[in-house]
Description:
Layout: E1 4-7, E2 10-16, E3 25-30, H1 31-38, H2 44-47, E4 58-59, E5 66-74, E6 77-83, H3 91-98, E7 103-107, H4 116-125, E8 129-133, E9 139-141, E10 147-149, H5 155-159, E11 164-168, H6 169-173, H7 179-187, E12 193-197, E13 203-207, E14 212-216, H8 232-245, H9 250-260, E15 277-278
Parallel strand pairs: 1-7, 2-5, 7-8, 8-11, 11-12
Antiparallel strand pairs: 2-3, 4-15, 5-6, 9-10, 12-13, 13-14
Helix pairs in contact: 1-8, 8-9
Amino acid sequence: MKRLGVIGSMVWDTIYGRDPAQPAVEEWGGISYSLAALAARANAFLRTLRHVAPGSRFIEVPEANNRVTLRYYSSERRCEQMTGGVPSWTWPELGPQVVDLDALYLNFISGYEMAVETAQFLRRGFRQFIYADLHSLFLGKESDGTRVLQPLPDAPAWFGCFDVVQLNEEEMKQLGDDPLAAAAAALAQGCQTLVVTLGARGAAYFTGRPVRTARIAASGGPAFDAGDPTGCGDVFGATVVASLLAGAPLEEALQRGTRMVRRPLVRPVRWGVRRCKQG
């Protein structure tokens, strides 16, 4: 069994408007969705991951845990405000945590999980497979904590740190007006594959030199059967990385990811760790 490390942030979410008929919901979010997807029933490999292993690696810190308020205006449009936040990983902290792993899934839930310099140390010190959802690296933060979409600073350096990179459609637009040119520039940095999630339309990928691209249509029934779009990108990424590690070809892994986000997901459990770094 391969050992997959998951790096991200636990978030205590307060969610308004996800179900207009219900009051605000409070629950664990962030990387919890990825862990829930890894523990779900997508395929034989995923079925072996029933829970977070007893040896999960936590480093407690004095800072308050990430807290996020989400206000939904539609299934694909929301406002996010963040307070608190654990400090970024440094390479001396992170290096010993990953030395015995076969692969890493890095999900930038807050955007502050690590600086680009730490990611570069990670790439040099960990030569195994790394899948990264760049996610909140594209979000700045205003004085009241409101997250705002922005271009990715040091984008070429970030793309040189990972084997597969996941973005959503809006984040992809921050790289330039020409998706093919933006993808080619990213792949030239050393990234092998760029995956772009397209919401209810599925996903697209760019890979190779010259660049080869294709779209994977969403399959199954109506998207978000449970009426809950929160964490769907995290579920998609966790399913894809687990499928790739199990030996699935890229397109098959992406198809599994699009199917998984259309299934009702067991809600993330209410773990008792409130202030931690997770590796």
